[in-house]
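Appendix B. Raw example, untouched.
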Amino acid sequence: MTQQKNGGMRLRQVPNPRKKDTLWLVQTLVALFASAVLVLTVTALTGNAWIVMVAATVWMGIVYGILLKTKHENWLYLGILVLMLVMTLIFRRQVLEGFRIFWNQASDVMVRGTGRVLPEWELQLSKDQSAFCVSLFAGLSACFVSLVCCALTSFAPAVLAVLLPGLLLVGMTVFGTGVGFAWLLPVLVVSVLILQYSGWRKKGSAAPVVMSWGACGVIACILIAIAVLPGVQNWSAQIRENVHQRIHEEKYETKYTTLPEGDFSDYKIVDRKAQQALAVTMENPQQMYLRGFTGAVFTGDTWEPLDTQALAKNKQLLYWLNLNAFNQNAQFDAAAAYAGLEQNTVTIQNIGACSYYRYVPFSLGKGTLTKPENLNTDGVYGDGERSYVYSVTAGTSDEIMQVLTHLQTSDDPAVLQYRKAESGYRQFINHYYLQIGTEVKEMLQEQWDEIAAMYGSANNLTLQQAQECTLIFLSRCFPEEGTPEDIELPLAVAEGTTFQYATVAAMTLRYFGIPARYAEGYVISQEMAAEFESGETMTVDSSCAKAWVEVYQDGIGWIPMDLTPGIGEILEDPENKDPNKNTSNKDTTEKKDKEEEEEPQEEDQPEPTGGSMVRIILKTVLWSLLILLAVSLLIFLILWIRRKILLGRKERKFKSENVSDAVAWIYADTALLLEKLGFDRGNGSMRDLAKPLEEKYGAEFAAQFDAVSDLNDRAMFSSYPMEEHHRRSALKFHSHVLRKLKSEVKWYKYVWLKWAQCLY
């Protein structure tokens, strides 16, 4: 045995043989996986960059694991919060800019999923700083999310298990973003494992948790592999659609609901008895088409609203129109306001109709039920509401021509501004509401072309000729008397109904260049309205349930075809007004085709200014984080290996077969621990420390110190052999001193003594 000069013997602690504690490792994995799942869920739902958030989560997991192992995890919460506060104060402008960009990206995702828009933040910094700002905000957000997951893992893991799938479902509902089965499954697996960990942690058994992680991981991989097989996605989508339909029926419909809402896949013609659907009270009873469901895209046996992807593509235009010019569902009201028409009040009590929609006319008053944040142009949604009041433009069926004439002839600056805004919306309508499904076009194109041949060609028709062709075709398909011509029509299951008529009419109008859409609802005829006085409640029953086609009337919006004014009264573009111009369908078609040809494909669109710099900055930040992470892991690995080697040497000395040597080494290491506690003997004797130890820790501790000192004197200077219980006594006092050292020193000194000096 060697002895250092003027320093005594430097020995190291040997812990009592016991089972290794792996609970800290499992707890770290739980927090890390939960944080990763949570941040990936956020990025999957909002469309924001995920690499930086995952890197920050991994870094937080490593720090949490280290502090957990050293039993100082409480330092994590205060330390990370202080670090985040300092970073926010230093880079406050960049963090705020990152939040603005993050918000705007989430808004785009919401529009694509739901058709609803969040007001965008105006960016303040240059584009070349965008990548850094987003990365900084994403990193801080990920750190905060990880911090919450670590805290819940330590104190309330069961809450975290419920939080993960709960946030996923809420996010899917808010953003309208569907996640695949291959992503939903890991979320559920992690939640189950957290619950298992929560139960086993109370029992103090970590081994079953480790085994369950491996088993569930294998099962998850197998299920994910099965999920991507052909046919499984369609099967799960069908189940999801059936569940959605069932919820819709239970929540919004009654046993008296009769309208198919555009879905004819399972439609059956039944003898509909006159069941009450709506109770309508008008200030001025009049003819009214109360539309509920409105369809823009026909898929063969189903009408669907306009895809939210199209709304997202035109978000700026539609949102600006809703806020400043007119709401698409109240466009006629905006136009009629310039003509000075009065407003009337209508009260609706929904008794037996589907309450997912509100039943409103085309003359709906602006601001009553419409919301500018909802960009969906097809229908007003009630979401279960069964009683509502709105305003309408008085006498709309008789005043349509008056409104059109006023818009065409007025020189009022407000009217001119309205016409310019409407021309922009008209381009949107002409792009999306002239589309015809391939199946329907193949079925009816021959008959359409045959009728159009009377005027030359379907691509060279005036608006009047287009409507005449439409009426001729509809009269052949749906004659008032006699047998219809042998023409194969869509919706054979709804043959002879207004649903089939409206579908065929909409497709025919589109083919001849007139924007049209399908509508369902309840029709109050002039005869019905004439039977009631002002303020009386009229019953609208299932016999009034119908479908009709609506035509976009330039200038005033969507009008039921029966109310559409005469041909030739279409509002012209304010910037190209020419009273002698013969506006034809050919001009409209050629202009539309030219715009489509000139419109670059998404992959061919020019790159915005600063795009290359953004990618360079993002790559630089990413590589810097990865390099920093790699260096940190390497340093940690070196320190861990060094510490294992030194502690192994000390353990072998403490377990020496010569008990006297072992006691001497233990006493020397105890003296070093006391020195770190502030009890430095200097060049004096170790026994001089007895009095200071008694003053601070009491007489009992001082007596134990004297007893161990006697054992050391005996080990060093006596030839009398020592027993095993002497070694245990020395180790007991050594452990006592070590506990005091761990509890009294500052955390940074604790880390230094453990990892740099390897004292324990």
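End of appendix B.
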